[in-house]
Amino acid sequence: MVLTLKVISSAINYNDGLLKEEDLREAQKKYRLVKLPSLIEYFGYCLCCGSHFAGPVFEMKDYLEWTEGKGIWAPSDKGLSPSPYGATFRALVQAGISMAVYLCLVPYHPLSRFSEPVYEEWGFWRKLSFQYMSGFTARWKYYFIWSISEASIIISGLGFSGWTESSPPKPKWDRAKNVDIPGVELAKSAVVLPLVWNIQVSTWLRHYVYERLITKGKKPGFFQLLATQTVSAVWHGLYPGYMLFFVQSALMIAGSRVLYRWEQATNMGLVKKALVFINFAYTLLILNYSAVGFLVLSLHESLALYRSVYYVGTILPITLILLGYIIPAKPARSKARKQQ
Known about the structure:
- The chain has helices at about 1-15, 25-30, 40-45, 60-70, 85-105, 115-120, 125-155, 180-185, 195, 200-210, 220-235, 240-265, 270-295, 300-310, 310-325, 330-340; strands at about 160-165, 170.
- By secondary structure, the chain is mostly helical.
- The chain has a domain at about 215-330.
- Strands 1-2 form a two-stranded antiparallel ribbon.
- Helix 13 packs across helix 15 (about 310-325).
- The longest helix has about 35 residues, at about 125-155.
């Protein structure tokens, strides 16, 4: 899966290098390849073993600069190269904690429970809470494998992403970061989930799918979001559960945007806080409801599980999207400026 992204991005970046620079977006200018890499460079990039577990994916231009000691890897007045050991240790500790949490939770929330008669006997709230805990439990195995991969990329030096603006400057190791665990589990809005979950792949999708579907001079809409999520579903595999999950994700994000716009449109402190909490609860509910399709993959089983909780995670986002058209909201700041 990661190799597929590398091959596609290499071809697109080389094609961008043949185009006029003034016609390109910032990301295209940054990663374009004006020279065809050699076979050794290409295979070295594609087969760099540190990212073969489950990512992270990174750009060929960054890989080439790292191998040649150029760009941010060139010697500077801040030092020849920062030590990667502290950041590597933190990633390994995170991996250990993630695996421990997963092993502790998975016996109590096995996916096999969905097909057992006892699940059908439960009431609505217990079914919904079990779906939440199944999604929550499953995420920790991804946290584990991404943390291990992050540690391997960091210790190689490729994970270095520059220096902070603080005094004295400190090294940043964000290039290999694929997940922000508190950011996922405590997300205040579904909109931020692509920024904290499978971060590098989300960045890839934004640069190579989402932004390239936006017509120049126009704002992106639901079509760009749905198309991007559909590409992500196909990339994961041609299983109905993946398709259901990513279509659900597009609806979830669109519904969360409506809540955010309403939040920004009000100056009433209590209402604003209530909308922030509603968006937080909405994100938790819809994310873990949607994750059922991602986990079980089967169309029949996914729909049966969605039906067991009355399709609440599908109806709610669609309702919010429709309400967004009926009750449009303009940011409170814009109103204040107009009054001034």
